[in-house]
Write a structure and sequence with these properties.
With 256 residues, the chain is α/β, with parallel strands linked by helices. 45% of the residues lie in helices and 14% in strands. It starts with 10 loop residues before the first strand and ends in a 7-residue tail after the last strand.
């Protein structure tokens, strides 16, 4: 039982992992024995995150490779780098996302809507297409998409973002059905409000934070490290019988 969460020998690629939830996931996976590829838009930010993780875990577990998720060739370069460096990728975490618009759907431009769908859904599809074949060939692997509780809810201000996150859940279900016979698992993590730069506007102001957490069972914001454990579960032997699911980690916000 003590080895259920061991990731020794695994190689994980995590997008959007220079900070926030992605960085916490990379750190946790490295701490559980995996080698991890840190990726976000800026190489210096990736290298800083990798160095900090390596210093904490006491080994060269993390390497850095910058890639913009909006560019298919950049994602291909990321996939190629990971496979050339390690020979395989056993765990993929599609965490990076964007939300360039805040307001009602009536006011969103075509360019903004398309960007949200491309960065939050299509880019995940691209990277999965690039890395899934070698998992399927080995008949083993884990793919995790970081969605959001927004995918379950309506919103008058982040509706397009929520649409993209609902689509991520369906992407995971479809791929779980396709890849399951080959032993490759696909799941979603759906965080609630977490203290990240991405959600800074919702927690930096005390009044907004109080309003945002008032109706959650735990009455508080989450921390990135509190999402990372689920990612380790899904990529390790502990989650070996788990696929096609969307796991809500929100402090009880959706139950009240």
């Amino acid at each position: 039982m003590r080895d259920l969460f061991d990731m020794t020998g695994q190689v994980a690629v995590i997008t959007g992992s220079s900070r926030g939830i992605g960085r916490a996931i990379a750190h946790a996976m490295a701490a559980h024995g995996a080698d991890v590829v840190i990726s976000s838009r800026k190489q210096d930010a990736c290298e800083e995150a990798a160095a900090a993780i390596n210093a904490d875990v006491g080994r060269a577990a993390a390497v850095a490779f910058a890639a913009n998720i909006s560019a298919k060739d950049a994602l291909q370069a990321l996939a190629d780098f990971a496979l050339q460096r390690f020979g395989r990728v056993t765990a993929l975490v599609c965490n990076a996302a964007s939300n360039p618009y805040f307001g009602p759907m009536a006011g969103i431009s075509d360019e903004q809507f398309v960007k949200i769908l491309m960065n939050n859904v299509v880019s995940n599809h691209w990277l999965i297409q690039m890395l899934a074949p070698q998992m399927l060939a080995r008949k083993q692997g884990s793919i995790t998409i970081v969605s959001s509780i927004g995918g379950f809810k309506a919103s008058t201000v982040i509706g397009a973002y929520n649409i993209s996150k609902a689509a991520d859940m369906q992407l995971a279900r479809n791929l779980a059905a396709e890849y399951g016979p080959a032993g490759v698992r696909v799941n979603c993590i759906c965080p609630g409000l977490v203290r990240t730069d991405f959600a800074r506007a919702l927690w930096e102001n005390p009044d907004i934070l109080k309003q945002a957490t008032a109706h959650s069972a735990l009455n508080r914001i989450g921390e990135p490290e509190e999402i990372a454990g689920m990612a380790v579960f899904l990529a390790s032997r502990a989650g070996a019988f788990t696929t096609g699911q969307s796991f809500v980690i929100d402090g009880g916000a959706t139950i009240v």
